[in-house]
Amino acid sequence: MTKYSRQTKLLLAVDCIIFGFDGDELKLLLIKRGMDPEKGKWSLMGGFVGPNEDAESAAARILKQLTGLEGVYLEQLHLFSDPGRDPEERTVSVAYFALVNIHDYENQLNEEYRAEWFPIHEIPKLIFDHPGMVELAKDKLQYKAAFHPILFELLPIKFTIPDLQKLYEAIYDTTLDKRNFSRKVLSTGLLVKQKDKDKEGSKKGAFYYKLDKKRYSAKFHAFLNFIPNPDNLR
To answer: Is the pTM of this model over 0.85?
Structure first.
């Protein structure tokens, strides 16, 4: 007798909420859905978990297949299991959010699926429960960014303090004091000052910095209170 033979079968899917930063705006990567129902409408990156893989492996595979992206920051967000979330068949989805520097991956997006970046405030109508996934991912990103240095995943190898401040302001949709921000971020010990400057913004220019990856790994869970009272910045 087969175990669980009387239980209803369901499909297990993964959906990926991919955030990117272009130096000015926080953006979301979307594709045109390639199957019915809702074929041709805007969707998050998604697909089904194979019989011989776990959810995280499926998410990484789907990201590479649909966009060409690999080796990016990927974190599990939430399990979405409303019985009516997919009108075609009972499907449970494990959602992940990913962080990428847009300029590093401009030439890797798969043209077949027409992946496109949208400013976070100009997202088109999405299928199924994907709008809720995006909102939850935005909240999670704000929370994580206040306590862990994950936003460095959105920056190029070399960046300035003003670049980093623009990113935090985009994430929290707010304005931060320049002096306090600079003082606080330098006090973390995570940045290595470079000899060259970015002189596009002003004649004086701003020094470039690089992330100290060893300290980044060591301090990942000890980056507390970088953004005071993050809930008040929403």
So the answer is: yes
